[in-house]
Structures are given as structure tokens and as C-alpha cells.
């Protein structure tokens, strides 16, 4: 069924007159003559086949029908104005993304050229789990660690990954790391956030070192960076380090992996769920991970608490 609209200029003249309480006030607001405003209102009344004003001399008063119509038109024009401003500002303002250092450096930044507004993305990173307190984090979207529910926030699971050992090519050769048992004598990089070496050794059927050798880092990114520098072996997330492996800065050691789980999700305020830039950015992220075969099931995880 096709929509049938009255002339927009006539609606605008009517709404301004109703809101200002006079034709003169509307004319000043719209930069028109009073005669032009009156003409537009008459045209609208003809289109609607009803009187919207009672005219007495130079004054006008809304009819009951006019009062109801004006209330709805003011609400619609306010929404129209707000939506237009949002779209216009979206094309000018930076888009702020808060995430972990590893996600930023190894995954997001190398792909930003593929995002239509990638040049406007501003990234902030957190040493721990990124804050999803949108009242203080200054972010439009947070790439949240895991997929925990947060009050007032929509969480879309994004990426699943298993983990496996990685090392620099030079270290693998220097220490002759050829089988899982060789890691019992290697320096291992440990992750304070979620260390999984015991799980990996169990999956490989190898006893872990009695005394774990190697430093502990605040997050997996620092552990992986240390491995790149030849300081030891890190337990890296497959979905995050694929690009680093392709570049040759790291090599994968052995086929054994830990159980995959959701390592990242997209989080944003419930109030922003229909924001065009939030939606485009989220859709782009999901398309990227789907193409790489590391997508988590996208179903929304939303807390009912506020």
C-alpha cells in the first residue's frame, strides 16, 4: 500500500504556527511572509478536507482536530530532526572502540582499511578486560572479553578460538622444539588473565613442568609479544594470531589445541541498538570473523537489569 503524504511545506507551516500560537511567529521562524504561511495552511486543510484553525480577525486558534494533529506532527518533526542530526553527526564524529591490546594490534587494526569508515575509528585499549561501563569508558562499542551479561548492555558473541603454543622461528630451532615433551624444558609465557598451560599439557598427554618456568604477563598479548621476541613459548589464540603466523614472526608448535570458547563479543548500550554506525560496525565485524571461520553464534545476550 503506497503512502499518501500531504505537502511537507504545508505541514511545516502548520506545525510552526500551532507551536508558536500565531502565523506571524511561524513566518519569522521559517523566514517566510505571513501570507505564504497562511497559504500553506489553507493548502493543508484542503488536502486533509478539514479545518485545523478557527480564525478570528488576525488571530488563530486550533480546532480539536488541529490540536491533536499538531501534537503528533510536532513529535514526528522532532524525531525527524533528531534522526537527521544523528546521521549527519555520524559522518563527522570519530567512532570510538574500546578493546584489548591483542585484539587491536593483531586483528582490528590490520583490517580497518576494509571498513567504510575505518579512518574515523579511534581505538583505546585496556590492560585487563575492557570496561563496559558506557557512562565512563567514552566508547561507542566495546570489544568485550568473553560474553558475560552486563546490565543495560547488548552483548553479541563474536569470536571463538582454541589455543596452541607459538614461538619465534629462531627459538624453535635453537631449542629444537619438535614434540610436546620438549616444552617441559622450555621457558613458557604465562597469562595472568586466563592461563591454560595445564589444559594444553593434559590435551597433549604430557605432564606439565613441576615448576612452571617463565614470566607471567597481565594478558595474552604481552605473552605473545614476548614469544615474538624469542623470550619463550606462548599459548596463543588461533583466531587472533593467524596474521602473525602468516607474516612468519611466529610459528605454531604442534597440532594439540585447547577447547575453543567465545573469546570476544561486541558490546554496546541497549539505547544504541538501532544506531546506524553501531550496526554497520557490528555487522562488519561479524562478516569478517565468519569469512575466517572463527565466528561465534551471534545470538544476542542481553541483561534485563538496568
From TrEMBL:
All residue ranges annotated as the HTH lysR-type domain in the record: 6-63
Keywords from the named record: DNA-binding, Transcription, Transcription regulation
Pfam families reported in the protein's UniProt record: HTH_1, LysR_substrate
Spans through the membrane: none
GO biological process: DNA-templated transcription
Gene Ontology molecular functions: DNA-binding transcription factor activity; sequence-specific DNA binding
Family according to the record: Belongs to the LysR transcriptional regulatory family.
The name this protein goes by in its record: LysR family transcriptional regulator, glycine cleavage system transcriptional activator
Phylogenetic lineage: Bacteria, Pseudomonadati, Pseudomonadota, Alphaproteobacteria, Rhodobacterales
